[in-house]
Amino acid sequence: MVQPSVLDSFFQKTEGLARGIGFFARFLFSHPESTQGLRFYKEPEAMPSLDEFQRRVTSLLQLHALKDDLGRLVTHPVGLDAGAQKAWICFHDEVEEFIGGDREYSTIKDVASKAAENAARLACCLHVFTKYGGPFGDIEHSTMDSACSLMRWYLDEAVRFGRKSEMTEDLRNAELLEGWLVEKHKEAIRQKRETLITVNTIRQKGPNALRGGKRIDDALSLLQDHGRLRVTQSPGSKTRFVTVAPPVIIEWS
User: Fold this and answer.
1) Which one Pfam family would you cite for this protein (predicted)?
2) pTM of the predicted protein model
3) Which of the listed residues 101, 134, 166 is the one where a domain comes to its end?
4) E strand or H helix at 232, and its extent?
5) CB neighbours (10 Å) of residue 158?
6) Phi/psi at 242 (nearest 5 deg)?
7) What are the pLDDT digits (tens) for 81-122?
8) Is residue 194 part of a domain?
9) In terms of Cα–Cα distance, which of 61, 10, 12 is closest to 172?
10) Residue 56 forms part of a structural domain
11) Which residues span the domain enclosing 193?
């Protein structure tokens, strides 16, 4: 696990090299949005699936590695049944189609080019995780389907992360401020308060990374230019209010 700021900094400074040597394509990235400010206390719930997962991991870690008379690891090649092979080929061709032109994966060609290969690896992991200790057999259609679905999620994460890493500092500041404004809007709705927020409040209580200098004003201007919010001022008053556009609220839901 790497802190988002460290990963962002790495790719901003070395993205050309990192992409060139295949670094980006060799990992399955996830870059979830922060839930800070929304992690309200809830009574712990029973998690039988997690308990079963932990038991299975423990049993696998306790197994002894099989070796031959020369001390070499004994491996167990795993194949695909006919259904799994067909599902894998469909996924391979689906991703290949989305790489071309300006389609979904055109900005992450390096990652997408290895997607089918990684889906096969994921299918093998899922298969062995459930079958180890008994007859291996071939990977089944349902297992390959699950692996391909998981790989689609990782591809979407790669697209989102790649888009974020390509942002200019101004765009990143604007997105940070927009997220903060949306959360304040939702908080006001929950507490049945006025949803308007003043520019001065943003300067005093907004994201720490934007305080000082012109970053908040620049971010507000950029968001207003793109119709993401509106800054208004009452006649005879110097106080400016910020209203986030309703479609933007929905986007962040």
Assistant:
1) DUF3987
2) 0.61
3) 166
4) strand 229-233
5) 24
6) -115, 130
7) 999 999 999 999 999 999 988 888 888 888 899 999 999 999
8) yes
9) 12
10) no
11) 169-251
Tokens describing residue 79: 């194949």
- Do the domain assignments include residue 50? no
What's the CATH code of the domain at 175? 1.10.10.10
Q: What percent of the chain has pLDDT over 90?
A: 34
Q: Which residues have a Cβ under 8 Å from the Cβ of 171 and sit 6 or more positions away?
A: 222
DSSP string, 49-97: HHHHHHHHHHHHHTSPPPB-TTSPBPP----B-HHHHHHHHHHHHHHHH
SS3 72: coil
Residue 184 Cα distances to 42, 109, 239, 246, angstroms: 22, 37, 18, 14
Question: Sign of dihedral through CA atoms 17, 22, 24, 27?
Answer: negative
Domain membership of residue 94 (yes or no) is yes
From 133, 166, 199, give the residue that closes a domain.
166
90, 147: one domain: yes
Average pLDDT over residues 124-146: 86
The two structure tokens encoding residue 105 = 């994966």
- Between 156 and 165, where is the model more confident? 156
Amino acid found at 23: F
